[in-house]
Amino acid sequence: MVGLTYASGELVKIDPLTGLSGRAGVPFLTPDPGVPLRMATNAPKLTPEKAWKTQPSLRKVVGFIARNVASVPWKVYERLDDNDRARASGSLAERTLRQPQRFLSGFKLMERLTIDKCLYDRWAVLLTPDGVPHRIPPRALVIESNAMDEIQFVGVNVAGRTVDVTDLPLALGTGWDAWSGDGISPLTTLDAILREQANAVEWRAKLWDERPKFSGIVKRPLNAPKWSETQRTRWVQSFREFRAGQAGGAPIFEDGMEWEDWTSGYSPKDAMDIEGRRLTDAEVASAFYIPPELVGAREGTFSNISAFRQMLFGPALGPHFEEFEQAFNSELVPTLAGDQFYAEMDRQTAINGSLIEQSRVLSTAVGGPWMTRAEARAMQNLPKIDGSEELIVPLNVTEGGQASPQDGVTGAQTDERGIAADEEQQT
């Protein structure tokens, strides 16, 4: 149970399991708090909830961003001096960031915060007095700013009333707004494109349901014997079954009936279904600064996909990492561990590429082997062996003896694709 106060000064309690509890101590479930007035003025016509449910392109791109950001783990360090730091993997801060709550992992917390940022342009994490981080849903986040667009008040809309959390440790992020310190949802900008895609999908669905499944008409001679109502009903029913694909492989024509092709109207190719979806994917990906090749909106080759992957954790997702790191290190991490501690998202591991690429670059940079046997065994989750902590330097790789430690390596050198360099030169 966490004690907070309303903006009016009235004491309330928020139970993570039961919602809001009044002064009498009788818990009741919190209803939908609604949308704060300021946020309602900037709300797009296509709400984030509806867009997440009905827009495949948006969900694909935002989900791609959120999963990749969340897949980069937090690491906490203790700052010993300006040029020295120590990893604090067992600190309360890192343990809290990796497992914020019992049924909430660090991955899911960061995934939800990234989705909040992409869909609402605002996100917040509250550290309650018991040391537990709580994500504040954007729909319940109340932000007030002064004439300089500086945030002065942060609250949580609970059951239609505002709980003041300004004085509690907060990690907060908002986008740009012309008239406040709040943000404007990117869906406001993408609204026209997404509505166009929704209309196209609806039109194509009606086209497939209502148009004939084949292009042609059936002609019956004028001098053909007149059918009885039973005969006509039987033939029409059999043709409808054929049209629905429920019986037979071909219709049965009677009394000199003839088939005449009818090429007017739209075919599936004319509707350009796949092209339209790829165009929307590319537009949404570009709006979130993601290379369309990474979400399948445009075809790519092996070489440029590898380059785009390097860009993903650099200029594409780098601003997300930087914003989260600065916000968490401003209040949450110092509150959990102390002012000498700070947290980083280990994006360098994701950028570095494969172990083969890292080994080649690092061995050349340091002029010799750079990993001990103990470190290599730890990477493979193997037990430690006594005497494996020393760095082994081969006799043919001595200090100053060669321009590169790789000059003395015997055997074929392979690139990141596993292709021998000498074989590639021969081809």
What would your notes on this structure say?
- There is one protein chain.
- With 427 residues, this protein is an alpha+beta fold.
- The protein contains 15 helices and 15 strands.
- It has helices at residues 37-42, 48-54, 56-70, 92-98, 106-120, 186-210, 229-243, 268-271, 273-287, 302-316, 318-337, 347-351, 355-366, 373-379, 421-426, and strands at 2-6, 11-15, 19-21, 27-28, 74-81, 84-87, 122-127, 133-135, 141-145, 151-158, 161-164, 170-174, 216-219, 258-261, 341-345.
- 23% of the residues are buried.
- The model is unreliable at 5-9, 15-38 and 408-427 (pLDDT under 50).
Average pLDDT? 77
Q: Kindly, what is the distance between the CA atoms of the first and last residues, rounded to a whole number of angstroms?
A: 70 Å
**Rg calc:** 32 Å
Number of helices: 15
Percentage of residues in DSSP E strands: 15-25%
Number of strands: 15
Biggest sheet, in brief? 7 strands, antiparallel
The residue fraction in helices comes out at 40-55%
Write down the overall geometry.
extended
Strand order of the largest sheet: 4-3-2-1-11-10-9
Count structural domains. Answer: 3
Helix/strand/pairing category = alpha+beta
Give the SSE string.
Answer: EEEEHHHEEHHEEEEEEHEHEHHHHEHHHH
The parts where pLDDT drops under 50 for at least 5 residues are 5-9, 15-38, 408-427
